[in-house]
Amino acid sequence: MTHNKFLDILKTLSKQEIDAFYKHLKLNHSREKIGLGVLTQIIGFYPDFEQIKAQNIAHIYQKVFNAPFDEKGRALKNFQNTCFDLHKWLKNFLIAAKVQENKTLQQGIWLSILQERNLEKAFSKQAKTFYHHTRSTPFSTHSDAFPNWVASYFLREQLSRNKPLVHANIIQQCTETMTECWDIIRLKMACEMTLLHQTTQHLPAQKVLEAPTFQQLGLFILKKIYETLWRLTDTEEDVYFVQLNALLNEHGHRLDGHELQWILRYAFNFIAKKSRKNQDELDYKKMHRLNQIGLKYGVFSRDGFLPSSAFGNIVNIACLSKDVAWAIQFMNTNNHIIHPESRAKALLLAQAIIAFETGKFREVIQPLETKSFPDTLDNLRAKSLLLRSYFELKYEQDFLLDNCAFFENLLRRSPKTESVKAMLVFVLTLKLIVTQKSSKSVILKRIQNTPNMYSRKWLLQKTTDYEARYAARGITTTQHTSTFK
């Protein structure tokens, strides 16, 4: 069942949420026997709703409608209409559940109702209560800007109706809060737009004024972080990374975990994109610091564990920043945070990364040659380490070319992510070096001019003493000594 909106939402629910929805449907839509019947059948496929194919739809239809399924007749339309109703009921159920657990949403909706019905006394009391509650709650995520904006809006509306001159100072305070809350959202959007501008040539975002002093706990900090992040991405000046690093180290504990994760990921990806061109050690040091902050506040874990690819990436970035001692200590003391099912292989790959960085190439080959990794990124990283280690140890040309071809085919079958594209360019360039048919200038030009290339710095080192074995076609061929440096 492709593009089924009901299933798209249903598969995001936990078993407990699905059970709650089923009980809600039985209680509030008890006469909808068809809808309940279809839901009962679909729930039977939990948790793998992806396996619901055409033949399963026919089976569900026959069980519920007690009639044969005809895909080209009314049967399919009936089934789709039932799924449409289920989607509508599920949507309303989730909205109600969200409102029930979110006091801010309840307050905002209730104030809107009171305002629409001109219940002035109740509206005035509720607006003041809501405003003072939000003002006393610290900021920890950019989404905190929304309830503060809404509370300030409703209080400003109430005071503006009743003696506005008497309440001029409070009205001004509400206006300033609304402005600053918008600034937080605007700065986050500016960060996103800056990167968009860099890739699509859109006009840059407007410059942002310096932030005034705020008294509400967390508001100034969050705005300052976003302003600094935006200035870093807009100007690429190191001074703003220094400021961002200091702000996150000092105030990271005040931020919501998901908010901090977004900030770190955005800053990391921005620097990583920049580093792909020059692969400057300073950029790797910056990414290493961001990883350390994320580990400090535990924002990288999923369900209490660190994914194996994230563990390997942290070790890899530490090595590229020349902090191998930290990488070794991290690997030895923090391996418990990897999920038990992938821990052994994640540690094996981390050890290989460190071995390669320290020039122990045989210690890379021996454990990795017979291993495959369930995570795509881990698998590609392992193959890259093997291929570069073979080259460093001067394996025979045919063997190297066979492994280049294997790696190339693997990459061409992989999802076309930025990492895969960068690795593909890497292996194609390494093939040129191994075959020794292209001139040194051609290879250097390729390495220097390709915007996204994996292990660019390593490839440049391997071309330092490179000599073509044969001249290019059409030029007198001269035999040269084969050199793999």
Question: Can you put this structure into words, describing what you see?
Answer:
The chain has 485 residues and is an all-alpha fold. Among the domains are: 5-101, no CATH class; 394-485, no CATH class. It has helices spanning 5-10, 15-28, 33-43, 54-65, 74-101, 103-116, 120-135, 145-161, 168-200, 219-235, 238-251, 257-278, 281-296, 308-320, 324-333, 340-357, 362-368, 376-392, 397-413, 418-435, 440-449, 456-462. The longest helix is centred in the middle third of the chain and has 33 residues, at 168-200. The radius of gyration is 30 Å and the shape is globular. Mean pLDDT is 85; it is low at 473-485.
Count helical runs. 22
Structural class: mainly alpha
- Any idea what the shape is? globular
Helicity range of the residues?
55-70%
Measured by DSSP, the beta-strand proportion falls in under 5%
Give the rounded overall mean pLDDT: 85
Q: How many individual β-strands?
A: 0
What low-confidence regions span 5 or more consecutive residues with pLDDT below 50?
473-485
What's the short story on this structure?
The chain has 485 residues and is mostly helical.
Topology:
Blueprint: H1 5-10, H2 15-28, H3 33-43, H4 54-65, H5 74-101, H6 103-116, H7 120-135, H8 145-161, H9 168-200, H10 219-235, H11 238-251, H12 257-278, H13 281-296, H14 308-320, H15 324-333, H16 340-357, H17 362-368, H18 376-392, H19 397-413, H20 418-435, H21 440-449, H22 456-462
Helix pairs in contact: 2-3, 3-4, 3-5, 5-6, 6-7, 6-8, 7-8, 8-9, 9-10, 10-11, 11-13, 12-13, 13-14, 14-15, 14-16, 15-16, 16-17, 16-18, 17-18, 18-19, 19-20
